[in-house]
Amino acid sequence: MVHVFSASNVFKFVFIILASIEQTAVVKSNPLCPSEYPKFGVPIYKGDIDMLQFAENLEHLEADFFLWSSLGYGLDKIAPELVMGGPPPIGAQKANLDFLTENIIREFAFQEVGHLRALKTTVGGFPRPLLNLSAENFANIFNEAFGYELVPPFDPYRNSLSYMLASYVVPYVGLVGYVGTNPKLIGYVSKRLLVGLMGVEAGQDAVIREYLYERAAKVVHPYNHTVAEFTIRISELRNRLARCGIKDEGIIVPPFLGAENRTVSNVLSADYNSLSYSRTPPEILRIVYGTGSECVPGGFFPKGGNGRIARQFLDKPSN
User: Fold this and answer.
1) Which spans in 72-187 are helix H?
2) Which of 51, 132, 292, 294 has its Cβ near the most Cβ atoms within 10 Å?
3) Other Cβ atoms closer than 10 A to 109
4) How sure is the predictor about 191, in pLDDT bands with cuts at 50, 70 and 90?
5) Which pLDDT score is estimated for 39?
6) Contacts of 139 (CB under 8 A, 6+ apart)
7) Poorest-confidence range of 28-42, 119-133, 267-281?
């Protein structure tokens, strides 16, 4: 269906936008809407900085993955100041996405740019780490998840469904990392930044999971496995790599893992009380490195993550 916008409709649309902006300005100056920060306390505690900077590794991964896939170019073009001289990602490319999926991923991409800007302007940052976004890297991840080599190799850029399955691999790791970091922060600005980031990451993960849940019974061509099985295998792989029990679940689960032990649908992954799982930096590194060790880089980060927390593990022997 083609939508034709008349001059009057365009003016109405512009008027609505301008009215919205004016209302926003009024709200910001309204004494009934005071600052959200407390009058006393520490805005950013010194110990908060390293923990928040650690998150920049995952935000860089998501930003370039989503930007390249939806636009055909990445952070170097969109916001080069946030790259801070880091090397370009390996193997990133435009994905073959349908209209709906491309719009979703483009929005995710610009959200990640905002996340990086918010983090780096609040707590400082580091150069973008070397990222491996190649189809070969994703193929290795899915081979490991299934326990054998998929033929042909899994390609996240092949089509929309393959891409959303690949996207299932990424945002959830950052989300559970934010949940794990939250109780360790002290500064009120630090906490506000984290929950703002966490809310959007949770939304992204929910959109991806719902997209896949709607197609749960669909067989992923050319493999003889359903979408649901793909998510289960990836979740099981992340649990194995992290080595800290079940903190990750596919979109279909046995009843004992469902909400109140009464569902097999699992649009949102959560614990017994339907609270989000949490992970520590070592768990996250074991997953995104794909090695099961926070001391051995690989996977999405061939040379390891950046920042004090990630780099300190690279100086230790593998456990």
Assistant:
1) 75-78, 80-83, 99-123, 135-146, 160-167, 171-181
2) 294
3) 22
4) very high
5) 80
6) 150, 153, 154, 155
7) 28-42
140 phi, psi to nearest 5 deg: -65, -40
- Distance, CA of 71 to CA of 77 (rounded, Å): 11
State the average pLDDT over residues 225-235. Answer: 98
pTM, to two decimals:
0.89
List the structure tokens of 7: 């001059």
Q: How far apart are CA 285 and CA 226, in angstroms?
A: 28
The model's confidence at residue 266, banded by pLDDT at 50, 70 and 90, is very high
Tokens of 50: 């390293």
- For residue 69, count other CB atoms closer than 10 A to its CB: 27
Contacts of 133 (CB under 8 A, 6+ apart): 61, 64, 65, 68, 89, 90, 91, 92, 300
Which 3 state secondary structure label does DSSP give 265? strand
Using DSSP's 3-state secondary structure scheme, residue 219 falls into strand
